[in-house]
Amino acid sequence: MTLDSSRLHLAIQKSGRLSQNTRELLRGAGFRIQEGKNALAARVENFGLDLLLVRDDDIPTFVGDGVCEFGVVGRNVLEEMALDEGAAPVDLVAPLGFGQCALKIAAPDATAYEGPQSLAGARIATSYPNLTQRFLNQAGVQAEIVKMSGAVELAPRLQIAQFICDLVSTGATLEANGLRPVDTVLESEAVLIRTRKPLSPVRAELAVQMLSRIEGVLATQESKYIMLNAPEEALETIAAMLPGAEAPTILPLAGRPGHFAVHAVCKESVFWETLQALKNAGASAILVVPIAKMMM
After folding, report:
1. Which of 64, 221, 228, 247 has the least CB density, counted as fewest CB within 10 Å?
2. pLDDT over 60 at 13, yes or no
3. Considering the domain 8-97+190-220 in this protein, what is its CATH number?
4. Residue 255 burial (10 A CB sphere; 0-12, 13-18, 19+)
5. Where in the chain is the domain with CATH 3.30.70.120?
């Protein structure tokens, strides 16, 4: 497969939850993904962007080596790879708000755990040896790491190890295998990364446009547009209560001297309790609407 030097390239997981969520993010940013017969790539038909569909473990390497300018990968994979000697460095652009999970130490239900010192001298099975070793080093604990590529949760039952270090989302897999999470090694979610290799002027301009769109989508995920009316004496109090808002727009209301319309983009969740507090402060005709698109 030959890569087009006039287009950007984004490495994403070939299949799975991160792949689906990444595609939804791109569609939300207005990119029309052309699904073809090629199992290794997908083309964006209305923008200079191609998707490379690869294993998640390969994404940091693709981006670090400059094969792809950008990638979407779990923070757990990124940090595990970054701890490998000789790994090409990448820049983290932004967390993406999906794919949340945690890398956790887990123990059999019958095994006591009183902190990292309980791991001293034990065997720990994991697919993340670098992150596990970093956790042990930070705790000042010596233990033996048993590297496994899958089915880590079976290690205690098969007497391969006393503990495991594995990704936990709902905890159902641990529970089904008689295990419980006892310590957190890393909180993880999907992140956008970019190469440190220099970009051509054409690719650099495409990168600016792509990032602007993605930032706009991320900004609207929790953001709401709030409109309300308020008397002049309550404006300062009400403006301070708007969650995550910067400088609201304040306009005089026609035919109502001393009263104003307040419009603001709230970058945090707006709860019913917030609306009640605004009303108690003197606001009226409060309207909260979702934001479909926002260009940052």
Report:
1. 247
2. yes
3. 3.40.190.10
4. exposed
5. 224-290
* Fold adopted by 101-188: D-Maltodextrin-Binding Protein; domain 2 (3.40.190)
- pLDDT band (50, 70, 90) for residue 1: low
The residues near 195 (Cβ < 8 Å, ≥ 6 apart) are 63, 64, 65, 66, 68, 69, 70, 90, 91
Domain 224-290 has CATH 3.30.70.120: yes
Query: What are the phi and psi torsion angles at 217 (to 5°)?
Result: -65, -45
Q: What are φ and ψ of residue 78, in 5° steps?
A: -60, -50
> Mean pLDDT for the chain?
92
Residue range(s) in the chain whose domain bears CATH number 3.40.190.10: 8-97+190-220, 101-188
User: Strands 179-188 and 259-266: what pairing?
Assistant: unpaired
- Over the stretch 97-146, which tens digit does the pLDDT of each residue have? 999 999 999 999 999 999 999 999 999 999 999 999 999 999 999 999 99
Q: Please return the burial class of 70, using the count of CB atoms within 10 Å of its CB with bins 0-12, 13-18 and 19+.
A: buried
Euclidean distance between CA atoms 105 and 227, whole angstroms: 47
Map tokens 């969740």 to a residue: 269
Angle separating helix axes 75-82 and 129-139, nearest 10 degrees: 80
Cα 222 to Cα 207: distance, rounded to the nearest angstrom: 24
| Single-letter amino acid code for the residue at 283 | A
Distance CA 127, CA 147 (A): 6
